[in-house]
Amino acid sequence: MLNPMAHSLNKLRINYDFKKEDVIETKKEYKKGDIIITKSVSFNGFLGHVGIFVSPTHILHTSRWIGYPFPKLITIDSFRKRYKKNIVIRPESPQIGEEAAEIALEHFYDKNIGYKISRNPKLTKNSTYCSELVWYAYYKAGLEFKIFNSNYFKDGSWVSPGPKDFIYPYDFANPIYVKYNGFSFVHIT
């Protein structure tokens, strides 16, 4: 029998429409560990782009943008010019967010880690992609952002992504995933 919840959750993983009603609270200042998600791009079937705030004004991200072969810092103003429609999520624990931001800087910033979309987000030594970079920083900080693993004919469950899984940018924008993983929407542009 077809599992409609599993089908809906899987569909949201790759195609989420940002909604203002998802925003729980409005904040004026970004914090270390906030995650910014945009729907302004697509690449090889991946819709959206994601980065992690490493300060209230700077985001660490990786992309295939010309001149950006490795993870780079970008100001929020530059990010908004490049990517027009964005939302931000924040972890319930500010300490986890700060630790994830520090880990992202230590592991990815100014390192020759090339851009490549690949499975198994726990392996980021030689390559990474935007949503994997963010997921890995939180994973190392002790917060495993889980995904709903299912097929269309069985009940699913929340799992840590494994060797055959991708982390999609919209995993961070899906309201069900956001709530389950202890985040909330804090700002929309």
A few lines on this structure:
This protein is α+β, with helices and mostly antiparallel strands and 189 residues long.
Features:
single chain; 189 residues; alpha+beta; six-stranded antiparallel β-sheet
Show the helix and strand layout:
Blueprint lengths: L3 H11 L20 E9 L2 E8 L4 E4 L10 E4 H7 L3 E6 L2 H15 L5 E2 L11 E2 L1 H12 L5 E3 L7 E3 L15 H6 L2 E6 L1
Parallel strand pairs: 6-7
Antiparallel strand pairs: 1-2, 1-5, 2-3, 3-4, 5-10, 8-9
Structure description:
- The protein has 189 residues and is of the alpha+beta class.
- Helices cover 27% and strands 25% of the residues.
- It has five helices and ten strands.
- Strands 4-3-2-1-5-10 form a six-stranded antiparallel sheet, sandwiched between helices. Strands 6-7 form a two-stranded parallel ribbon.
- A hairpin with a 4-residue loop joins strand 2 and strand 3 (58-61).
- Helix 3 packs across helix 4 (130-141).
- It is globular.
